[in-house]
Amino acid sequence: MEQIFPTAEKMAAALRAGEVTSAELTDEAIARIERDDKAINAVCVPDFDRARAAARRADQARLHGEDRPLLGIPVTVKESYNVVGMPTTWGLPQHRDHVPAEDAVQVSRLKAAGAVVLGKTNVPLGLQDIQSFNEIYGITNNPWDHARTPGGSSGGSAAALASGFCALSIGSDLAGSLRTPAHFCGIHAHKPTLGLAATRGMVAPPAPPLPVELDLAVVGPMARSARDLTLLLDVMAGPDPLTFGVAHDLTLPPARHERLGDFRVLVVDEHPLIPTGSAVRAGVNRVADALVDGGAHVERHSPLLPDLTEAATLYTQLLFSGSVARFPVEAYEQLRSRAAGLSADDRSLDAARLRGMVLSHRDWIEVNNRRELHRHGWRQLFAEFDAVVCPITPTPAFPHDHNPDPRERRIDIDGVEHPYFDQLVWAGVATMPGLPATAVPTGRSPEGLPVGVQLIGPMFEDRTPLRLAELLEDEIGGFQPPK
Predict the structure, then answer these.
(1) 38 is annotated as an active-site residue
(2) Alpha helix positions (H), 382-456
(3) Is the pTM higher than 0.90?
(4) For the segment 136-176, what is each residue's pLDDT rounded down to a tens digit?
């Protein structure tokens, strides 16, 4: 079988054919981590002894005729998921010794599907950055350029996949935390429809793992191929057995089309609030050209597209409204004073962030009402189109920037500096209304860095952008290992 960075699909086929054992795959992965991860620092909490034991059990199960979806496949798990016997810290130093008593629901599903968990991957402090570094585990580097970030907050998982340390990984996404690392590291990721995959046990310590329905945030799969995303999503999808799972069974509708030429696609590469860098624009154009060459119906503009400026403002307010819930009263009052001093005409994203932090319940309900209007607008758009192609962030991976005050950081877009957090607006296009979005690699920048785009699909029709991702992978290629 192919020995260099095989997909999970190929691993599973080789395991079924008896060409390799899970123990061999696991030993190969561990050897690669031990050899190469010193420079990357992706796998922050290894669990090799238990992984080898799980691999032996998987091989025995296969000898006895079992065949589960991920039986014997080596995987990693984002550090923020609870795993029995391993710390869950979210990079918070005060919780470095927190060890949960039960697995997160998604970790349980991985294990039930037969996956071999190699360990946990690094995250930023509190999962609140577009990079992946913290005081406990240090800095994760981009496999393509160690001076650059792999993204965040699922940056450790993306770096691990790009480095060949695992076949699959699970992450989470609130502000592009699945899609941005995929874009920066040249892999695939899928942000599911809001609520599609249960999140219990993906919780900041020391909070209990309750079946809470989160706003904006989702959990989802990461892989080196689009087909592997579908394989892992089928394991992850479904309601929490403690709540909706008591009464609901999940049946995702099939992809709208199977042939590239049948897809109707809207391509968007400009945002009113931030420019698109030339490397990312070129990546969008490569996808657009492949769609046209494949016979798809492609449009560059549509009056049905919900207003991107208002969408970014609503997303920013919703995102930051939850970030100050546990702030000390004094700090919160300072924010309220600053927000009260804003001009009524100030419609900048900085102002939206500040207003979001101090939204009253009444104001939050109004913002949420506006969100529902946007969701209705997306439903109308997806009556005419099957998917929307757009950037994930304005640039490829940027150099490490660990300024402790993110407000002072800047993102360089073709030589012009912009506020650091403004780059989140593209992630918010899908996150604010809760739509599924698949990140796919499209090639390299002139500097040799990976560039990706996102394929946004209709709500709960996750198989449509995933199928489009598979077809595009066949047309323009997919993951390539770092050089």
Answers:
(1) no
(2) 425-431
(3) yes
(4) 999 999 999 999 999 999 999 999 999 999 999 999 999 99
